[in-house]
Design goal:
about 130 residues, glutathione-dependent formaldehyde- activating enzyme (gfa), seven-stranded mixed beta sheet, mainly beta
Length: about 130
C-alpha cells in the first residue's frame, strides 16, 4: 500500500498530497532555514518532485543561489523548498503536514549553525553541514 501525506499552508489556500516514501527527513539548522521558517530550524521531508500534487497560488523567492522557497501567496506561510542543484526533488515542511506525527526526522544537518543554547538530545545523527546525500 502506497503511503500518502497531505498538508498545506496556514490559511488553507495551498494544499498538497505527497505520495510514497520520502528520500529523507532532516532538520536543518542553517541560518537561512531558521529565518525562512521563522523557527529555530526547518524540519523537512524530501520527495521526488513528481510525487507531489499541489494546488493554490504560490509566491517564490530564491533564498540563496541554490534554493527556491515556495510560500502561500495569501498567508505567506513557507510550504516547500526546491534545491536548484537537484531539480527532481522538493522538500515539504513537516510543520505543514496535516498529521504532525506522520513523519519523523532521521538526522540534524547544519548543527554548526544552530544557536549554542539549543540542545539536541534526541539521539539522531548530527552533521556540522549537509550530511549524507539524499
Amino acid at each position: 500500500m502506497t503511503r500518502t501525506f497531505t498538508g498545506g499552508c496556514l490559511c488553507g489556500q495551498v494544499r498538497y498530497v505527497a505520495t510514497g516514501e520520502p528520500m529523507n527527513v532532516r532538520v536543518c539548522h542553517c541560518g537561512l532555514c531558521r529565518r525562512a521558517s521563522g523557527g529555530m530550524a526547518f524540519a523537512r521531508a524530501v520527495f521526488a518532485k513528481d510525487a507531489l500534487a499541489r494546488s493554490g497560488e504560490m509566491a517564490t523567492h530564491a533564498s540563496s543561489a541554490r534554493l527556491l522557497r515556495h510560500h502561500c501567496a495569501v498567508c505567506h506561510g513557507l510550504v516547500y523548498a526546491e534545491p536548484l542543484d537537484r531539480p527532481t526533488v522538493m522538500s515539504i515542511g513537516l510543520a505543514t503536514l496535516d498529521d504532525p506525527d506522520a513523519l519523523q526526522p532521521d538526522m540534524h544537518i547544519w548543527v554548526s549553525a544552530k544557536p549554542a543554547w539549543l540542545a539536541l538530545n534526541d539521539g539522531l545523527p548530527q552533521y556540522p553541514e549537509y550530511g549524507p546525500p539524499y
